[in-house]
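Figure 2 data, in text form.
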Amino acid sequence: MRKVTEPMMKGLPPISNLPSLPPQDRAAILDYLFEPCVPLHTLSLELLRDKSFADYDDLISSIGIQLSDLAESTSTSDTQWLHDILAAHPRLGEKKVDSAQSSAEQAHLKGDEGGEKKSLADLNTLYEQRFPGLRYV
């Protein structure tokens, strides 16, 4: 899971304010920390409203627990829900990236003349053939 660094904090409200924020603001925080993803909103918006967190790393860990619970579930709907959340993350090396975090993560690939980007595209394809419905991230 991602750790919240000081530059990331500048775009986030104090953690103690989360329960009082409207749902669309809590969803925007999830989008900022992870990726824009309605299934993640469905999973975690209540958590952001109902639980107190020590800091954003604590929030991220709590969402990690929710995702682990989906992964360990025997329910096919939970498995599909998890796959939908994971699919919100862009493929490594993909041109279209929705979140600022993913843009920053993939910035070193801009200007790559085919080397690393091509390797990532090949790995994406192999992974998705081997694990249908999942994304190499």
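Caption note: The chain has seven helices and no strands.
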